[in-house]
Amino acid sequence: MIENQKIRPAKVIGPLGESLTLDTLPPPGTSRWVVRRKAEVVAAVNGGLLSVDEVCERYGLTVEEFAGWQRAIDRSGMPGLRVTRIQHYRSLYERQQRY
After folding, report:
1. Could you tell me the superkingdom of the organism this chain comes from (predicted)?
2. pTM above the 0.70 mark?
3. What is the pLDDT of residues 49-92, one digit of tens each?
4. Which in 6, 18, 36, 41 has the greatest CB count within 10 A?
5. What would the pLDDT profile of 8-51 be if each residue is shown by its tens digit?
6. Residues 41, 44, 50, 51: is their CA dihedral positive or negative?
7. Nearest in space to 69 (alpha carbons), one of 57, 54, 84, 86
8. Domain 33-98 has CATH 3.40.50.2300
9. What is the C-alpha separation between 89 and 67, in angstroms, rounded?
10. How far apart are CA 51 and CA 44, in angstroms?
């Protein structure tokens, strides 16, 4: 009997079109999260390179924090991940939902 195995890709395409592997992702314990690093981690999960649980454990994130990154990218792309612009993009998204 053949068991279902999770088949993971060796690499995925990152947010800027580059190849991402486990070695090219931000190192575990990263404490300074710039937009590019957040987007790379989200792309790795979306591409199947890592699971959400693995990302949260590897980087010390909460599921809610990571989900917020995913929502920000879905709504506004990479600029939505900028900490200084979160409120602007949030209100812009809410206005778009009304109309």
Report:
1. Bacteria
2. yes
3. 999 999 999 999 999 999 999 999 998 889 888 876 666 666 66
4. 41
5. 899 999 999 999 999 999 999 898 999 999 999 999 999 999 99
6. positive
7. 86
8. no
9. 16
10. 8
